Amino acid sequence: MNNLPKPIRASSRQNEALPVAVSIDTIKPIRCLEDAVDRCQSLGMRLSRQRRFILELLWQAKEHLSAREIYDRLNQQGKAIGHTSVYQNLEALSSQGIIECIERSDGRLYGNISDSHSHVNCLDTNQILDVHVELPQDLIQHIEAETGVKITDYTINFYGYRQEKASDG
Ligand SMILES: [Zn+2]
After folding, report:
1. C-alpha 100, offset from chain centre
2. Which residues of the chain fall short of a pLDDT of 70?
3. How close is the Cα of 52 to the center of ligand 1, in Å?
4. CA of 158 to the centre of ligand 1 (A)
5. Residues with Cβ within 8 Å of residue 51, at least 6 apart in sequence
6. Over the Cα atoms of the chain, what is R_g?
7. CA 77 → CA 40, 95, 142, distances in Å?
8. Is residue 121 located within the same domain as residue 111?
């Protein structure tokens, strides 16, 4: 028997589903692929080759992709990975808050940014773009006063159509 300190973990005896949002103030946000890898390691998650492939792809693509698209892209890159492995790894990574998972009517999409952010939904191209939006403090206070709820986090969905970008060189 040795006396190595055990990593502190929330014990959930009833095995209840814990919310994905982990306490933000104690854990540094994931800002790059290396951060994501570090987070896996600090959580004691095994970092298999397949799991690393998925993280690499999401950080390269910086899009919101379905499991099917992730599977297709990895195999196109010559990174042989099975369907089941893709699904299981996405599930594990998103349930640990390492990647983003959005539920849509036509299925789940996965993204590289795991901390709270907002989305611009392009109705013509079906793309979802990540944006960081900070609402003015007085607007938040107004919402708090109106609802009696202390706002601790928010995410906004914008919807619209692609505009022709003026070519500025
Ligand atoms: Zn996103």
Report:
1. 2
2. 1-26, 166-169
3. 20
4. 12
5. 40, 45, 89, 92, 93
6. 19
7. 24, 26, 50
8. no
| Inter-residue contact 108 to 67 (CB < 8 Å) | yes
Instruction: Confirm if 65 and 71 have CB atoms less than 8 A apart.
Output: no
Q: Is residue 154 part of a domain?
A: yes
Pairwise CA distance, residues 123 & 119, whole Å: 12
**pTM for this predicted structure:** 0.76
pLDDT cut 70: percent of the chain above it: 82
Predicted pLDDT at 121: 94
Residue 27's pLDDT is what?
Answer: 73
CA dihedral of residues 86, 90, 92, 95 (deg, nearest 10): -160
Q: How far is the CA of 115 from the centre of ligand 1 (A)?
A: 9
In a domain, 9, yes or no: no
The Å distance, Cα 102 to ligand 1 centre, comes to 8
Q: Give the domain range for residue 154.
A: 116-163
Which residues, other chains included, contact 123 with Cβ-Cβ below 8 Å and sequence gap of 6+? 159, 160, 161
Query: Is residue 116 within 8 Å of residue 154, measured between CB atoms?
Result: yes
Residue 40, classified by CB atoms within 10 Å of its CB into exposed (0-12), middle (13-18) or buried (19+), is buried
